[in-house]
Write a structure and sequence with these properties.
By secondary structure, the protein is α/β, with parallel strands linked by helices. It is 47% helix and 12% strand. It has a 7-stranded parallel sheet with strand order 3-2-4-1-5-6-7, sandwiched between helices. Strand 6, helix 10 and strand 7 form a beta-alpha-beta unit. The radius of gyration is 22 Å and the shape is globular.
Length: 334
C-alpha cells in the first residue's frame, strides 16, 4: 500500500495469509505489504486469540491517522463520494485506508463487497488500501471489529482512514464515536429532509454533504438543513456544521468537501477537541473489550452450577435478582 512495499522481502503469499507471527505481520504492514494488512484485519474480524498481541504491537502508532466517517441513508452516494475523496487525498500525497462496512449476507454472514466493486479505480494504487467488512448483524452502521481495524490501518502508515457505514437510519450513529470528523450525506428527492436530519443524525454531523446536487429540490434540502442547524444550541467557539453541495458521480464538490474536513480538523486541534475525541474513542474501546470479557465469563458460568443455583433461588423467591447479580459478580471477581 506504499512504495516501500516493493522493497519488502517476500516470504510467499501463502505464508503471510496463514502466519500467526504478529511482529512479522506488523513489520510488513508498516512497510506497506497489503497482504500483511489483510491478514491482520482478518485476525481482528475473527476475534482471534492473537488480538491482544496485535493490539499491543499496534499501540505505539495509535492516533496517527485522521479518521473520517461517512454515513447516510442508502442511495445517497456514500461509496461514490468515498471513491472521489480517495482520489483527492491521493492527489495531495496522502496514504489512504478505506473501511467500507457492508450489510451481512443472510446465508454466509459475509459482506457483499459492493463498495470494492465501486472503488476499482484505486485497486492498483499502492497508496490505497480498501477493505469491505461485514456488519455481521452488529447495529449502529459499523462492524464490531471496525475500531481495531482502524488501528491496523493506522499502524500500516495510513494518513487518512475513511470509514463508510452501512446505509443507516436516525438511531444508527455509532460512527461518530469512531471518527474525528463525521460526514452525513443526504440527497434531494429522497423524502422529507427534516425527517432525514433530525435527532441523532443531526447531532453527529460535522459536515453535511448534499450529494446529487444536480437534482431538483437541492435548494430546499440545503435550506432545511441550514434551518435545523440554526435551531441547535451552541456556545461561543463551538463548531457549526458546514453544508456542502456535490455531484460525486462527476467529481463536483469534492474539493469543497475536502476543504470542509480540513477546516474541521483545524478547529479540533485549536480547541483541544481532537484529543478529547481520541480519549473518548479509547474509553469506548476499553469498555467494549471489558464488557465482552465479562459476558464471556458469565457465559462460562452457564456450564457450571453457580448461575443455575442463583436462578433457582430467584425463581422460588428466596433472593431477589439484584442480590443474585451481586453474588454472581462477586464470584466472577474471585
Amino acid at each position: 500500500m506504499s512504495d516501500a512495499a516493493e522493497h519488502v522481502p517476500s516470504t510467499g503469499t501463502t505464508s503471510v495469509r496463514r502466519t500467526r507471527d504478529v511482529p512479522m505481520l506488523v513489520e510488513r504492514a508498516r512497510a506497506g505489504d497489503p497482504r500483511a494488512v489483510a491478514r491482520l484485519i482478518t485476525l481482528v474480524e475473527n476475534g482471534d486469540s492473537l488480538l491482544p498481541a496485535i493490539a499491543a504491537a499496534l499501540a505505539p502508532y495509535a492516533g496517527q491517522a485522521q479518521v473520517v466517517g461517512l454515513t447516510g441513508s442508502p442511495g445517497v452516494g456514500k461509496s461514490t463520494t468515498t471513491n472521489e475523496l480517495v482520489r483527492a487525498l491521493r492527489a495531495k500525497g496522502h496514504r489512504v485506508g478505506v473501511l467500507a462496512v457492508d450489510p451481512s449476507s443472510p446465508f454466509t454472514g459475509g459482506a457483499i463487497l459492493g463498495d470494492r466493486v465501486r472503488m476499482q479505480d484505486h485497486a492498483t494504487d499502492p497508496g490505497v488500501y480498501i477493505r469491505s467488512m461485514s456488519s455481521r448483524g452488529h447495529l449502529g452502521g459499523l462492524a464490531a471489529a471496525t475500531p481495531q481495524a482502524v488501528r491496523v490501518l493506522e499502524g500500516a502508515g495510513c494518513d487518512v482512514v475513511l470509514v463508510e457505514t452501512v446505509g443507516v437510519g436516525q438511531a444508527e450513529v455509532e460512527v461518530a464515536s469512531l471518527a474525528d470528523t463525521t460526514l452525513v450525506l443526504l440527497a434531494p428527492g429522497m423524502g422529507d429532509a427534516i425527517q432525514a436530519v433530525k435527532a441523532g443524525i443531526l447531532e453527529i454531523a460535522d459536515v453535511f454533504v448534499v450529494n446529487k446536487a444536480d437534482r431538483d429540490g437541492v435548494d430546499a434540502t440545503v435550506r432545511d438543513i441550514q434551518g435545523m442547524i440554526a435551531l441547535g444550541e451552541r456556545g461561543p467557539g463551538q463548531w457549526r456544521p458546514q453544508v456542502v453541495r456535490s455531484v460525486a458521480a462527476r467529481g463536483e464538490g469534492i474539493e469543497e468537501i475536502a476543504a470542509a474536513i480540513d477546516k474541521h480538523r483545524g478547529w479540533l486541534v485549536e480547541h483541544g477537541e481532537l484529543r478529547r475525541r481520541q480519549e473518548a474513542r479509547a474509553a469506548a474501546e476499553v469498555e467494549a473489550i471489558a464488557l465482552g470479557t465479562l459476558r464471556a465469563r458469565i457465559g462460562s458460568l452457564r456450564d457450571g452450577t453457580e448461575l443455575a443455583t442463583l436462578a433457582a433461588k430467584v425463581a422460588e423467591g428466596a433472593i431477589d435478582p439484584y442480590r443474585a447479580a451481586d453474588e454472581l459478580l462477586a464470584q466472577l471477581a474471585r
